[in-house]
Amino acid sequence: MPIKIDDDLPARQILEDEHIFVMTQKRALTQDIRPLKIIILNLMPTKVETETQILRCMSNTPLQIEVELLQTSTYTSKHTSEEHMLAFYKTFDEIKDHRYDGMIITGAPVELMDFEEVEYWDELCQIMDWSVDNVHSTFHICWGAQAGLYHHYGIPKHLLDQKLSGVFKHRMLNPKSRLFRGMDTYFNVPHSRHTTVHAEDILKVPDLRIMAESDEAGVYLVSNESGSQFFVMGHSEYDADTLKKEYFRDLQKGMNPQIPKHYFPDDDPSKEPVLTWRSHGQWIYSNWLNYFVYQTTPYELE
């Protein structure tokens, strides 16, 4: 929770430099609390599982959050019941005249296709264009991150020699960023993807900066200068058994998948995986909501 102190107290600058949530008396007198409006564009086939994972990551905060779920109208989910979609999801036409504090765009199992070949690509581009003016800060995940970098900045994705699957050690490149408040210099993140983006392509864009990376998994987190766009290549929201389910699913399909790296104890799929990334996932989402949404979004969204 924020610490309310006198505007001129010497400790104020020290605490703010440490990214401690300090609220001056002047701001406290003018603040009027309302719920944050967050919309999630869920492109994953496992809608309910993805909803639960992301909502769990956003729940570890004292902020009041109002969540809406968004689906594409140009593609009908084959893995989630029509009743669930009708009851809980909206289409772009239903929300396009509204504004939101934050938006999350998930990944999707379409990365082996060219972006333009994806059935709902035109609609996704329309939504991403709309987010620039109607969402205060947008958080793109995995394929959603690659799609956002490609659409907004022309950065291509590249096919990997083999699927990147496992839990990998990452390091922050900008430890003073508020996005990393409370986190260790090194942290684990699950990855599950066939494609990647190259650091040299990102570094050519002046407005983008690489925030964290991995020796094995490559670029992990990219943001624009203003903090209105974040692109996250991994899945910090994954449950302990998500990679396990994916591995055995692919095994049953006869796809001969590689065992996810650094995931099963002793690389033995018969042993239960150990959860080593939950705290990182909670911090990333909490810090994004706090520092890049709550503390900077206007009270009157409209």
Automatic annotation (TrEMBL):
It comes from Catenibacillus scindens. It catalyses: L-homoserine + acetyl-CoA = O-acetyl-L-homoserine + CoA. It is found in: Cytoplasm. Transfers an acetyl group from acetyl-CoA to L-homoserine, forming acetyl-L-homoserine. The active site is at C142, H235, E237. Keywords: Acyltransferase, Amino-acid biosynthesis, Cytoplasm, Methionine biosynthesis, Transferase. GO terms for molecular function: homoserine O-acetyltransferase activity; homoserine O-succinyltransferase activity. It is an enzyme of class 2 (transferase). Gene3D superfamilies: 3.40.50.880. The gene is metAA. Its main location: cytoplasm. GO terms for cellular component: cytoplasm. The keyword Protein biosynthesis does not apply. Belongs to the MetA family. GO terms for biological process: L-methionine biosynthetic process from homoserine via O-succinyl-L-homoserine and cystathionine. The keyword tRNA processing does not apply. This is Homoserine O-acetyltransferase. Substrate binds at K163, S192, R249.
